[in-house]
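Minutes, structural biology subgroup

Action item carried over from last meeting: produce the structure token record for TLR21 protein (Rhipidura dahli). EB confirmed the sequence was re-checked against the source entry. Recorded below for completeness.
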Amino acid sequence: WRVLAIYMILAAHLSEQQVLKQACPSCGTSQLCNCSSMGLDFIPPGLTAKITVLNLAHNRIKHIRSQDLQQAVNLRTLLLQSNKISSIDEDSFQSLAKLELLDLSNNSLAHVSPVWFGHLFSLQHLHLQGNSYRDLGESSPFLSLRNLSSLYLGNPQFSVIRQRNFEGIELLHQLWIDGSNLSQYEQGSLKSIKKINHMIINLKNSNIFSEFFRDILHSVTWLEVTEIKLPVEKKSLVQNSTRPFRIRKLTFKESFFTDQTLSRAIVLLKEVTSLKELEAVDCVLEGQGRWNMKEIARSGPSFVETVTIIKVVIQNFHLFFDLSGMESQIKNLKRLTIASSNVFMVPCNIAKHFSSLLYLDFHDNLLANKRLAETICEGSWPSLQTLNLSLNSLKFLEEIAKITSRLPKLNNLDISQNSFGEIPDACEWPETLKYLNLSSTQIPKVTTCIPETLEVLDVSENNLKEFRLQLPFLKELYLTKNQLKALPGATPIPNLVALSVRRNKLSSFSKEEFEGAQVGAVRLSLMECRRSLVVSLICVLVFLAILLLVVLGYKYHMVWYVRMTWAWLQAKRKPKRAPPKDVCYDAFVSYSENDSDWVENIMVRELEQACPPFRLCLHKRDFVPGKWIVDNIIDSIEKSRKTLFVLSEHFVQSEWCKYELDFSHFRLFDENNDTAILILLEPIQSKAIPKRFCKLRKIMNTKTYLEWPAGEEQQQVFWENLKGALKS
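Output recorded by EB:
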């Protein structure tokens, strides 16, 4: 009885292993088990301790049972996103003490149970977003998750956050909450988390913003709020809060502001003394700049040092005020970016008050020469070191140089992707300029307009045919995508340490060329002297040769014969049959793409869902990606007990079906061999079969084949006959 019991256990285990391998072929020997997008309705049995990564995403799983993952004790990553999971047994994850990542996002979970996560002591990343739960319950589901680093929560139905919901979590690298329909937030709910490096929340209900913001003042370093319509907040944002605060960066994305809400926000955010960086991306401002300047001035200076504004739409931009009265708020600012926002000028009286600004980025705007002269007036931007004016409407390089010379401390200037065209012989630049980017500015040459003080120069993507400049301090030179035929001389640039000359017209250079050579000593070959003529002649000859080969190949099927000869040589080197241990399919199915609907939706379903199921090899599903298709065909036929041909008019016209049939000539269509099974999906005229498939014609004349009937009763007999043939 003991022997019998052991035998039964082993048999059951082997049966589970077979089911697992049929459901997920990649689970055979690897630690990574990829079962995504396999149409599974359940977690396949047979998972072992060998597996560390299990991917079951994008299936149709509805329920996770206690025994499903019981043996996968070494699992580190479990991906279950995008299924239909609506229920999980309480002890389903009990054996997964080593699990580090669990993704249950985009399912149908109507509640979150703390029992699920009770034994996940190593869990670091948990994804629960995109389900249907409305809250997290009365207590915290995360009490046991002491090592949690990132948490993703919420969905369009998520409406309540309660005080005890986050107990047990002390530190998070990232917290992401979809609170697009959040209507109730109990104050103090997030205070239990001591530190959050980056928090992202989608918050459309502006009424709970202030309560939520007060709770995260001491824990969140970077707060990112999306889709909010900022309220006119009257109460202080730091009410009853003690310093010091932790929050340093506040980002608004896809949010909506008015003059009134923005004016009030500027005042209230000054109370957050730790806040150093403000960012607005893809936001909308409905207003004309009519801000309460008196209230803003009375509230004192701002502590913010960096402001970033990207793709902000001002609906009445042409009516916008010049923001006079904001002078006291900008004097401590060190970095300012306003990009892709249709900026065309900054008034001179405002620009003069940016006394501490070191970095200014105005890329992708509407700045033109005349407005730039007002933006960079005498006495403006006195501390500026880096200026980015790329992708604007600037012209006349000499004028731009003169304007920027008003900046006494400028050492880094980017004016790329403007249309300068011509370049003068002399320009007046800031004496401190070290870096200049003139890439993609349509300059046809370089002149002494380029300042000798430079250490880095980028003139990539222009029409330069040569580079002959004396730049004694230059260390880096970028000449990519020009028309250079020779390297720049080494003597005029003695301190050069980095040179980029990719995608030019350089043909060759040697060590001697770097050291220099006398012109009289150079002897050029015919190729070097008449390179264009020689190259053109070679190209014409090569083209004619290729054209001739294409015509001959098309007429005499040369490509087809070369491919098949190679396949035949490979087949000859292999044994007639694969060893039994390598045979893993009941049948390889050869069919035309035009017949895929019948094969994949009718035949595969009938055979693979039979009892016992047949394991079929389909090129769409089972071929190895990146492997030559002929090798895939050869290997698949050798690893299959039978080869099943679905014959139709489309089949005999298919190029790859011809290859499969030809390979079968070498290995299967032997008169004493019954491994080939023919299914006639529709009547085929004999003349439709290519002449080179004479053995196929012979077999169709001498061997029985299965014909697909029109009636349902005859179809049942057809399936029984086909299953019998596969078992034989």
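Discussion: The mean pLDDT is 85.
Next step: EB to file the record with the rest of the batch.
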